[in-house]
């Protein structure tokens, strides 16, 4: 069974990270992915939307797949249903992402353990915005 890292390690990840690829970032302001990403952007994070069929979200160019994102990503933040997390983990591993954050409300222990075994820092079933506000 997957367990999240200690809060001190999560805090350190958030402090050293600046660029977050958000898989499933909705262009709809009422959606949690939009609200969370908008707030993280306001706190100085570079948000990279990963969502097919959308040109941009939050004023940033959107990419269809993680593999299409140019440059280094510090955290892959996942706003997809649990059944789709396996594919996101495959992509995060493929691009060499150092960390994956599976948002609150999403649980896929197998995918989280696989990401962890591949060397990624993994956080699951927690909100990146809430943790950043509380820890940093």
Poorly predicted sequence stretches spanning 5 or more consecutive residues: none
Label the structural class.
alpha/beta
Radius of gyration, Cα only, in angstroms? 13 Å
Number of strands: 7
CATH architecture: 3-Layer(aba) Sandwich
Q: How are helices and strands ordered from N to C?
A: HEHEEEEHEHEH
Note the total helix count.
Answer: 5
Question: What is the first-to-last residue Cα distance?
Answer: 28 Å
Averaged pLDDT, please? 97
Describe the largest sheet: 5 strands, parallel
**How big a fraction of the residues is strand?**
15-25%
Total number of domains: 1
Name of the CATH superfamily:
NAD(P)-binding Rossmann-like Domain
CATH topology type = Rossmann fold
Q: Quick one: overall form?
A: globular
Helix content: 25-40%
Order of strands in the sheet with most strands: 2-1-5-6-7
CATH class: Alpha Beta
In short:
The protein is α/β, with parallel strands linked by helices and 136 residues long.
What does this structure look like?
- With 136 residues, the protein is of the alpha/beta class.
- The protein has a single domain, classed as 3-Layer(aba) Sandwich (Rossmann fold).
- The protein has 5 helices and 7 strands; from the N terminus they run H-E-H-E-E-E-E-H-E-H-E-H.
- The strands form 2 sheets. It has a 5-stranded parallel beta sheet, with helices on both faces.
- Helix 1 crosses helix 5 and helix 3 runs parallel beside helix 4.
- The chain is globular.
- The N and C termini lie far apart (28 Å).
- The mean pLDDT is 97.
């Amino acid at each position: 069974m997957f367990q999240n890292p200690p809060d001190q390690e999560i805090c350190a990840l958030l402090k050293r990270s600046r660029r977050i690829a958000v898989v499933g970032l909705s262009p709809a302001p009422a959606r949690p992915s939009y609200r969370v990403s908008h707030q993280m952007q306001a706190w100085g994070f570079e948000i990279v939307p990963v969502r097919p069929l959308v040109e941009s979200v939050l004023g940033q160019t959107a990419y269809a797949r993680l593999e299409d994102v140019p440059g280094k990503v510090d955290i892959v933040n996942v706003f997809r249903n649990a059944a789709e997390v396996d594919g996101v983990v495959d992509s995060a591993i493929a691009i060499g992402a150092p960390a994956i954050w599976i948002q609150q409300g999403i649980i896929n222990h197998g995918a989280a353990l696989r990401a962890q075994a591949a060397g990624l820092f993994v956080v699951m079933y927690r909100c990146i915005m809430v943790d950043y506000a509380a820890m940093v």
